[in-house]
Amino acid sequence: MATITTQSAQTTVYDPINSIHNRPATPQMWYLRVEIVYQGSNMPYQIGNGKMESLEFIGTVHTPLKQIGDCPLQESEGAPAGIIRIHEKYLRAMSGLTRGSKVVLLTWLHQSDRNTLTTKPRNNPNAETTGVFATRSPDRPNPIGLHEAEILSISPNGEIIVSNVEVLDGTPLIDIKPAL
After folding, report:
1. Which residues contact 125 (CB under 8 A, 6 or more apart)?
2. For residues 151 and 37, what is the distance between their CA atoms, to the nearest angstrom?
3. Would you say residue 178 has pLDDT above 70?
4. What is the pLDDT of residues 33-84, one digit of tens each?
């Protein structure tokens, strides 16, 4: 296992096959663990070919929810409407979005605990402990939120009002996709 640190990212490369046999790793055999560092609106990360890439937030979600305890567990459980503010450089990407459309919002749950690997589903202390990949817990290694909502209104200045968003005020928006 090797850890590579640059100014903006840390990457751990683990080669499960060759580390056992004490052989040099080949790129086809690498398992790459990517550590994303939150830095404002961009998250740099290192990928397998060594090229530096970045994930850019396209906007911010604003809601009346100010603390994690204020957030409902699901959007269907009393989540408030939210206002999405798209960054100016992405305004053209809003073309085709219409009032009444169902969309899926991908968010970066920036206040989540990224070290959590197991949880009690729905915060039920009597529930069996489950791995976070089998839950919708916001606490997980890569806290990407998935939210289905309806566009209630849309303006050309980049403001979109959507229904039922269970995220904290100021949550970064990764992407908007049409619901299937």
Report:
1. none
2. 31
3. yes
4. 334 444 444 555 555 565 546 789 999 999 998 887 777 667 667 788 999 9
Least Cα distance to 175 among 40, 37, 58 occurs for 58
Report H helices in the chain.
Answer: 16-21
- Burial class of 99 by CB neighbour count within 10 A (0 to 12, 13 to 18, 19+): exposed
Report the alpha-carbon distance of residue 78 to residue 70 in Å, rounded: 11
| Closest C-alpha among 3, 47, 7 to residue 27 | 47
What are the respective helix, strand and coil percentages of the chain, to the nearest 5? 15, 40, 50
Q: What pLDDT, in 10s, does the model give residues 99-155?
A: 999 999 999 998 888 898 998 877 788 889 999 999 888 888 989 999 999 999 999
The DSSP secondary-structure symbol of 119 reads: E
| Pick from 177, 162, 171: nearest CA to 143 | 171
**Scanning the structure block, which residue is given the tokens 């206002």?**
83
Whether the predicted model's global pTM rises above the 0.70 cut? no
> What confidence score (pLDDT) does residue 50 get?
57
Question: Which pair of tokens denotes residue 121?
Answer: 């589903």
